[in-house]
Design a protein that fits this description.
- 42% of the residues lie in helices and 14% in strands.
- Strand 5, helix 5 and strand 6 form a beta-alpha-beta unit.
- It is built from 14 helices and 12 strands.
- The chain starts with 12 loop residues before the first strand and ends with a helix.
- An 8-stranded parallel sheet has the order 3-12-9-8-7-6-5-4.
- Helix 5 runs parallel beside helix 7.
- The chain has one domain: Glycosidases (TIM Barrel), CATH 3.20.20.
- The protein has 397 residues and is of the alpha/beta class.
Length: 397
C-alpha cells in the first residue's frame, strides 16, 4: 500500500486479504484521507469473503487499503445476525463491526439507514409511524454528531432504490402502483426523515462533522422519456432532501456520455433548492456490470472495465459528488448458485481490471492532493481536482 504524508496517522500492518496489504487505522483521518476522491464502492450482501473476521470489516479494510476515502454499506435490522440490537443507534454504537468501520479513517459514508421501528408508508404514513421514524433517525444523527465531532467525517443517510420500493418494477403495468396514497406516503416518509436530520443538527453542538439525508431513485428515464410516474417526477419535487442517489443501471447498462449527463440534469431539475449545500446534489449510488447473466458470459472483465470508464468520465464531467461502483464482492447468484460477477475482486480472490482502475486512480489522486498541500498548504478545490481527474481518465480510454 502506498504511503502518504500524514502527521497524525499510523498504519500497523495486520494481514493480507485477497493478496492486498490490509492495515488498521490508529487515529482519525489525515488531510489526504479526508479528501473526497469521488470514486468509491460498496459492501452490501457479498456472497463470499477471505478471512474469518466479520465480512463488513474485511470489506472495509480492503476498500480502505485500495485508497478510497468513502465507504457505502447498510444500517438495517438483521435480528438473526445482530441479536440484542434494537435501534439504529445501537447498531452504530454497540455492534462491534459497524462501530469498527465507522471508526476507520474514511471521510465519507453512504448508508442505507432503515429504522428498526418497522414503519410503513405505502398505504399512507400515519402520525404514529412518523413519530417513530422521526425519533429513531433523530437519535442516530445525534449519536453521529456527538461521537464523530472534530473528525471531518461526513455521513449520508438514505435508503435502497426508491422506485423499486414504490413501483415494484419498471413495466407499464406497475404504473398503477403509483397511487395517490402511496405517493403521498413516500413524500411524508422522506420529509419526516429530513426533518429529523435537520432538527438533530440544529439541536446538537458539533464541529467538523456533517450528516446529510438522501433519497435514492432508480427509474427516472421512464419519466424523462415517456412521462410515466416515478419518484423523480411525483415525489422529488415535494421533498426537501439534501441529496439524491441515482442507482443508474437504466442509463449506464449501455453507457452513452450525453445520455448520462442528460438524466443527471433531469434529476437535478426536480430537486428543491438547498442554498447551504454547494455544488451538485445528485450522485451515482450504483452502477456496475455483471460478468455473467442467465448462465452465459455477459461482460468480460476488460469490457466491465471499459464500460465503467465511460460512466466515470461522464459523471465526473457532469459534477457528481460520488460515483459508486457495485460492488467490491459480488452479491448476486445465478439460478444454479454460481456468481453473477458484480465484483471488483472475484470469488477466487482475483482482482479484476476495474479494481486496478480504481486502485491506480486513488494512487494518482492521493499524490495529486498531497502535492497540492505541499505546494499551497491546502488541498485543491473541487473544481481543480475534478478537472484533473477527468483529464486523468480521458487518458485511460
Amino acid at each position: 500500500m502506498r504511503s502518504y504524508p500524514c502527521k497524525s496517522l499510523a498504519y500497523p500492518l495486520l494481514f493480507l486479504v485477497a493478496g492486498i496489504a490490509v492495515s488498521m487505522p490508529a487515529a482519525e483521518p489525515s488531510t489526504v484521507d479526508r479528501f473526497n476522491y469521488i470514486l468509491g464502492t460498496q459492501a452490501i450482501g457479498g456472497k463470499y469473503q477471505f478471512t474469518s473476521q466479520d465480512a463488513l470489516v474485511e470489506s472495509a479494510e480492503v476498500i480502505h487499503a485500495m485508497g478510497a476515502s468513502c465507504m457505502k454499506f447498510d444500517l438495517r435490522p438483521k435480528p438473526k445476525q445482530y441479536p440484542g440490537i434494537h435501534s439504529l443507534v445501537e447498531l452504530a454504537r454497540d455492534e462491534p463491526a459497524h462501530r469498527k468501520v465507522l471508526d476507520m479513517p474514511f471521510a465519507h459514508y453512504q448508508m442505507w439507514a432503515e429504522t428498526f421501528a418497522g414503519t410503513s408508508w405505502k398505504q399512507g404514513f400515519s402520525k404514529a409511524h412518523a413519530e417513530q421514524e422521526y425519533q429513531e433517525m433523530y437519535a442516530l444523527v445525534v449519536h453521529l454528531l456527538k461521537t464523530y465531532s472534530g473528525t471531518g467525517k461526513t455521513f449520508y443517510l438514505g435508503h435502497w432504490e426508491g422506485d423499486n420500493l414504490m413501483r415494484g418494477g419498471i413495466s407499464k403495468t406497475a404504473d398503477a402502483h403509483m397511487t395517490p396514497e402511496r405517493v403521498q406516503g413516500m413524500i411524508d416518509w422522506l420529509t419526516t426523515r429530513q426533518r429529523a436530520v435537520d432538527d438533530a443538527k440544529r439541536d446538537t453542538p458539533h464541529q467538523d462533522v456533517h450528516v446529510w439525508h438522501y433519497t435514492e431513485l432508480n427509474h427516472p428515464t421512464i419519466s424523462l422519456r415517456e412521462g410515466r410516474p416515478s419518484l423523480v417526477n411525483l415525489v422529488l419535487p415535494h421533498v426537501p432532501v439534501d441529496f439524491v442517489s441515482y442507482s443508474a443501471y437504466d442509463v449506464t447498462n449501455v453507457p452513452k456520455p450525453e445520455e448520462i449527463k442528460a438524466v443527471l440534469s433531469y434529476i437535478e431539475s426536480k430537486l428543491l433548492p438547498k442554498p447551504g449545500i454547494p455544488g451538485r446534489r445528485v450522485f451515482i449510488g450504483e452502477y456496475g456490470y455483471s460478468v455473467f447473466h442467465n448462465g452465459k458470459p455477459h461482460h468480460p472483465p476488460q469490457e466491465q472495465n471499459r464500460l465503467s470508464l465511460i460512466t466515470i468520465q461522464a459523471a465526473l464531467e457532469w459534477g457528481c459528488p460520488f460515483i459508486l461502483y457495485w460492488e467490491l464482492y459480488n452479491n448476486e447468484l445465478e439460478p444454479d448458485g454460481s456468481q453473477r460477477g458484480f465484483w471488483m475482486i472475484d470469488d477466487k480472490g482475483i482482482k479484476q481490471p476495474v479494481y486496478e482502475t480504481h486502485r491506480r486512480y486513488y494512487e494518482w489522486a492521493r499524490r495529486f492532493v498531497a502535492e497540492s498541500i505541499s505546494r499551497t498548504g491546502k488541498p485543491p478545490a473541487d473544481a481543480e481536482f475534478r478537472a484533473a481527474a477527468a483529464k486523468y481518465f480521458k487518458s485511460m480510454r
